Amino acid sequence: MNSGDSADPPVPTLRLRGFDIHAGLIPAAGQAGWVDDIRAVVAAAPLVAPVTPGGRAMSVRMTAAGRLGWVADRAGYRYAARHPGGGDWPPIPERVLGLWHQVTGVQRAPDCCLINFYGAGARMGMHQDRDEGDFTFPVLSVSLGDDALFRMGGPDRTAPTQSVWLHSGDVVVMGGAARLAFHGIDRVRHGSSALLPKGGRINLTLRVVAD
Ligand code: MD3
Ligand code: FE
Question: Which residues face 75 on adjacent strands?
Fold first, then answer.
């Protein structure tokens, strides 16, 4: 969805093959229920501030639901069957699974629902998602809470990029050529949404990891 306002120049609608945005798919009145489900997951599997293999703390805090969670630490990036604290990942909430099947049309369930939390100042540098075993499945992303400036490029770091503001309730499917595109979150407008009492942004990404 486009967003131009007094603080920023207008951002053109992002048009890339395989990038499919469903702006406002989750209605405002339904978003509190999503937050309740996410709070229950976080209560069982607390958010952690991952550390990159290079030893830098990521500004985004993460946890996961499903068979596998994605973790980062000094040993590297990988999918793991347990939370860093040692417990199982909670199951993916039913409403999240329902959206996955409805929007992607994929029959099988995702293995991982990664939960990213962006507090004030958090961002995510440009990267590819390539720790999964099969790139023919799409990745689905759900944005909740504060607005975020999402940037997407191509299959290598030198490709030109396009940006789009993501808002609470927006759902994005990345498939085809977009599946291996570099992407990141340049910034979040802290407090732009009232969904979370203290502000912040939640992003869910649903992935098929392996057979
Ligand atoms: C394009 N998350 O968790 S969601 C991530 O908003 C991640 O938290 C961002 O990048 C966030 O890896 C962006 C949109 C997204 C997610 C996965 C993708 C875009 C993608 C995978 C392939 C290509
Ligand atoms: Fe990513």
Answer: none
Distance CA 12, CA 31 (A): 26
104 touches ligand 1 (CB under 6 Å): no
Of 150, 122, 114, 146, the residue nearest 59 (C-alpha): 122
Is pLDDT at 102 greater than 70 in this prediction? yes
pLDDT in tens, 168-208: 999 999 999 899 999 999 999 999 999 999 999 999 999 99
CA neighbor of 116 nearest in space, from 183, 185, 164: 185
Instruction: State pTM to two decimals.
Output: 0.93
Ligand 1 binding pocket includes 61 (Cβ within 6 Å): no
Residue 4 pLDDT exceeds 60: no
Helix (H, G, I), strand (E, B) or coil at 42: helix
Distance in Å, CA 127 to ligand 1 centroid: 9
Cα–Cα distance measured from residue 116 to residue 60, given in angstroms and rounded to the nearest whole number = 6
- Tell which atom from ligand 1 comes closest to the C-alpha of 152: 1
CB 175 within 8 A of CB 134: no
> Cα(first)–Cα(last) distance of the chain, in Å?
34
Ligand 1 pocket test: pick from 139, 146, 166, 188 the residue with the most ligand atoms within 8 Å of its Cβ.
139
pLDDT tens-digit readout, 40-73: 999 999 999 999 999 999 999 999 999 999 999 8
